[in-house]
Here is the input.
Amino acid sequence: MTALPSDSVGIVVPQHVAFDSPLSLTCGAVLDRHELVYETYGTLNAERSNAVLVCHALSGHHHAAGYHHESDRKPGWWETCIGPGKPMDTNRFFIVSLNNLGGCHGSTGPGSVNPETGQVFGPDFPAITVRDWVRSQVMLADHLGIEQWAAVVGGSLGGMQALQWSIDFPERVRHVVAIACAPRLSAQNIAFNEIARQAIYSDPCFHGGRYAEHGVAPTQGLMLARMVGHVTYQSDDGLREKFGREVASGDLEFARDVQFQVESYLHYQGRSFSQRFDANTYLLMTRALDYFDPAQEYGDDLAAAFARSQASYLLVSFTTDWRFSSERSRELVDALVRARRNVSHADIDAPYGHDAFLLPIARYMDVFGAYMDRVGSEASA
Amino acid sequence: MTALPSDSVGIVVPQHVAFDSPLSLTCGAVLDRHELVYETYGTLNAERSNAVLVCHALSGHHHAAGYHHESDRKPGWWETCIGPGKPMDTNRFFIVSLNNLGGCHGSTGPGSVNPETGQVFGPDFPAITVRDWVRSQVMLADHLGIEQWAAVVGGSLGGMQALQWSIDFPERVRHVVAIACAPRLSAQNIAFNEIARQAIYSDPCFHGGRYAEHGVAPTQGLMLARMVGHVTYQSDDGLREKFGREVASGDLEFARDVQFQVESYLHYQGRSFSQRFDANTYLLMTRALDYFDPAQEYGDDLAAAFARSQASYLLVSFTTDWRFSSERSRELVDALVRARRNVSHADIDAPYGHDAFLLPIARYMDVFGAYMDRVGSEASA
Here is the structure.
């Protein structure tokens, strides 16, 4: 390929760390040992005050920015927001992005070998919650010598991790940026996740999660699950803009296997995802979403949960995001105000639904960049 | 059981009619012969001016009101609106309700035997459009000696048939009542239908639609398809009201197989549906939804399509219906006004999403009843 874009961090190399101290999980299980894969962008300053943690969402991983080799066709998943001069400016910040525990991109997860059995964990991998992720991210912070994050940043499920950090480790987070997020899932959210799980369970290649032992994978079920996710992460307007009712093949008038373009698009998205993601991890991630409910152990009082926090917050929502609507961000704002926290909220007018948090929308970039600029000034002050 | 409710039509008996004159379908195929099963409620007056046709939606059938025997636990699917003193008052109207061509409740469909092969049609049953349904309903009207319907009434896909009647057979329809309807599906609607179809195709028991020959049925796929439909026919608020995040079983803190109540509910709904409905018919019905686009042959001008109509219209929409939103009904209103048709539109504030059209919501019943009262006065005038 031609030279890499000048506003990219360029070639990046994933790093691995193994933790031999046990990690106690919310479900009661204990992982004696686990590994995380992560990437870093930018340079940690002498005061170690400019570190930013990026938390990924349902289908994300550690590769958030840059390229793995010169011939990479696609950069990291959040290239729009991470790089020189971008909202998370690598000229100012030392950015850490990991693959979460339970993931399928190099960190310990259902695809790893269970030391107790010598077999792949598969369905025996313990259930993981957002709190568990934060605890394992604390171990990563300690490993990197980062006492306090200038900011913990994430969209969707990633934003939930950022919120949980500020509740569970208040002294270690100065700023939280939670984008397209919610204080917990609605019944509708849970229902869509359950449909995705059922699609995976129903695949004859799932084998109760032991597909690896059978040398197969439930790609059809995972494809279906992703199709459900994909439709719900976009807005009706967005899909109309993109496809309307254009017919991709066949003739409406003589139609059994007519395909509207939106169908071919969904098939393509679902199929390619099913070939690069692990079904057990997808199940684990959707469950982590369902379980997330920081207010629960504070008598269902979200303000009480945030009362322990010492962080300031930026919340961003998108007008056509119906999965995690603007209303859900306002719930967070109300709770944070009642908890006497500093909070800014930008509701961005965009037709792209939930997926908007990945896109370079001008006002979103401006708001995000301006807030991170403040975070950076503090860090270097 | 105890005596049947006094506001019910009571015991009803399905009737069958076989048409031996060929029916040419939009897809080019010709059905030399087809049967329809239907029910009637109330009495046809001497002038034959009080007949109302009820058209069913995706998962509906001919049994819209009353009970089949004394011990029936459940009445017909639109019992809320059909009966003595109800919006479709059986003291005034002669109501006809059929199972559409392609259905799985007694009318000729994919489960019927193909006279050419002596085998069950299965996937070889031709694609059916809303226009084809109207044509076969015309044959039923002729059979019953009904020259003109006082009203053609339906919700969702049923409303689309009512609209198509007024376009294709203007002289045979005085009033159209189209509830929770749309002029055509959006890309998002089509996407959800395609996910449902993929769920069915993916079931190993589907056998390319020839499951009957294998003595099995793709119940798991059909269950998944119905779960997708069910979530999207309800509103986020409605599901929250019904279930919130209540846990049905298991302990959130020690959870792999935790179930939120909304999940058990979806499983139950999906499973029971998959045991009473045919997968090939479900595929056929979702395609009929996707194809519906009356404006298409009028240069995509909906007003031009309605210009031929001689009917008056009542449109009803529901504020939390996001599958066929109030906006879609307003598109219909605009087109009908431009076509110089009489049209009333009631947007009913209700938290129940698309499924609201089946529920006895006070203002909805009042509006529907008042309009049908006008229809009835004309009929007896």
Remarks:
- Residues 15-184+292-380 of chain A form a domain with the Rossmann fold fold (CATH 3.40.50.1820).
- The CA atoms of residues 183 and 332 of chain A lie 6 Å apart.
- Chain A touches chain B through 53 residues (CB under 8 Å).
- The longest strand of chain A covers residues 34-41.
